[in-house]
Specification:
single chain; globular; 7 helices
């Protein structure tokens, strides 16, 4: 079974990393979280039911790994902030600079959302999970996903209205 999920796992890595970045705001920690989640998935491959949504299963493992990490970190302090990263890749022309400014504003607006709204926003809007799949990943009722998403969208509109 681990070989069967190996290919799906490799294809899912960019999405897992994106979700991890939303959770922790640190590139190095996100990489560690993805690696840990992959290790857990491979070690527990028999618990995945073929025919079910593999990505939802992996997002749940990753989120649970993040929660475990937060519990361990309570006594050690929080990891570095993503906004502290200074490596920039690409063209330094006006277009990319303006795009980064807009993206930075949207990122700040998303960062100002409560954690539960950020998670739902990413899972439904960026990762294209259904409301039911997002509810399963987060362990909440589908109505909670819908209300969190509605509040997140409304707040993002308010925070970026001047953009």
């Amino acid at each position: 079974m681990p070989a069967a999920i190996g290919q799906e796992l490799v294809a899912l890595l960019p999405r897992l990393r994106r979700f991890a970045l939303v959770l922790c705001h640190s590139q190095s920690l996100a990489d560690d979280l993805v690696q840990g989640a992959c290790e857990r998935a491979l070690a527990n491959a028999e618990s995945w039911t073929p025919g079910t949504k593999f990505d939802a299963w992996m997002f749940r493992i990753l989120r649970n790994h993040w929660i475990d990490h937060l519990r361990r970190m309570r006594t050690e302090g929080m990891p570095e902030d993503l906004s502290q990263q200074t490596q920039l890749i690409g063209d330094q022309g006006e277009g990319p600079v303006l795009s980064r400014l807009v993206l930075s504003e949207v990122q700040r607006a998303i960062d100002n959302l409560p954690q539960e709204q950020r998670e739902v926003l990413l899972l439904v809007c960026a990762e294209e999970l259904s409301y039911r799949e997002a509810a399963d990943v987060l362990g909440v009722p589908i109505g909670t996903v819908m209300s969190r998403l509605a509040r997140a969208r409304k707040r993002l509109m308010e925070l970026t209205a001047a953009a």
